[in-house]
Amino acid sequence: MDLLGDDWVQIHRRTVQQHANHYKRNHMLLFLLVSMELESPPILQSVMMAVCDTFRSGAVKQLRTHARRLQIPIFEKGYEKDPICCSKGSHPEATRIGSDVVIVDTAGHMQV
């Protein structure tokens, strides 16, 4: 089993789908991760990832890679942007594209 390759993605996709019925549409989940090991939440009908870690070097690029591998859309404003604006802007975008859940990477910013 290749935990860093396609097997990892399939395992997390299955885990996420198993828990899909526990959440309502446009439910926002906050993950305050110490490391960047992405532990996927349940993928409902559709999940979007919001990048609010806008100051750490490589954070946006790293989450782009995770989103691409998980085949989910990503909402980002780029580097050196206000994390609160990024978080607030993700909800209307999720509604626009029909995502049920927004995974918000806050990088530990409790105000987000």
Automatic annotation (TrEMBL):
Keyword Membrane: yes
Family: Belongs to the GTP-binding SRP family.
One of the protein's GO biological processes: SRP-dependent cotranslational protein targeting to membrane
GO molecular function annotation: GTP binding; GTPase activity; signal recognition particle binding
UniProtKB keywords: GTP-binding, Membrane, Nucleotide-binding
Membrane topology classification: Peripheral membrane protein
Pfam family, one: SRP54
GO-annotated cellular components: endoplasmic reticulum membrane
SRP54-type proteins GTP-binding domain span: 45-111
Organism: Coptis chinensis
SUPFAM superfamilies listed in its UniProt record: P-loop containing nucleoside triphosphate hydrolases (SSF52540)
Record's subcellular location: Endomembrane system
Chain ranges passing through the membrane: none
Name of this chain's protein: SRP54-type proteins GTP-binding domain-containing protein
